[in-house]
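Researcher: Go.
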Amino acid sequence: MKGYPFYCKCANTAACFLSNRRLGTELANVTVTKYSNQETAVTIGESVRDEDVFIVQSGCGEINDHLMELLIMINACKTASARRITAVLPCFPYARQDKKDKSRAPISAKLVANMLTVAGADHVITMDLHASQIQGFFDCPVDNLYGEPSVLRYIRENVPEWKNAIIVSPDAGGAKRATSIADHLDLDFALIHKERKKANEVSRMVLVGDVKDKVAILVDDMADTCGTLGLAAKTLMDNGASAVYAIVIHGVLSGKALDVINNSMLTRVVVTNTIPHAEKKKHCPKLDTIDVSAVLAEAIRRTHNGESVSYLFGLASI
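Model: Structure:
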């Protein structure tokens, strides 16, 4: 089978380069520029005819520009006769807009899925979708990888007294994720009910469960402005928790997120490198990283070689 070019995009250089190094491949020669009117131009500097192409781009930073770069690059490879094009999106953009929760609200995640398919993507690899049903928005195969095995390993190796911990979901939507982690670690589970005045603003929180004298571990799929995590930590400490950790798959950390974390009662906030945050760690000593590049690299290798990817859906520790 022919080798595969591995295209790295600027939105997620850390996970991309680490995955690329694990695969032992060279990055393809790609140049992304902008015209004076802000149009995006992509130049592929080598042949992709009959090649198996993987393009890595995460939904972060200037999301609209990064999404457009991805779509143009997919289409460029398609028209250059690539055999198969796989879009690797460690953090799927617009994933939170997955349903019509009010009148005239768009289902933007479905729109992004349509755009990827029309651009020419034959396969999509992503990690911890905000809602699993987003997989059904696509007309091509989707592999939704899970960060749970990496989270379990981190807790066992890096959280002191984790056997005296309790897993806490910051909202009802994350209860399934939290209970799964609690079951695998044989720990108790608690839930925080939150009420929102508007998007990204939580007004009130109510704890369901006993956290007294325990290490509380908040688990969620995404942290944006971190208002939820900050209020949740205060709620848990007010109810007797000895320490509060937060473990999040996608650390968006926008707006005043770093200030919220630094001024909160959180002991540590742990995020994966599906979104780059090296610069943010310099301004927030409480931030820590879980490297998931091995999972992405193995998914790419298995896809290229025609092997089963379902092995990575379980508790495989890579």
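Model: DSSP finds nine helices and 14 strands in the chain.
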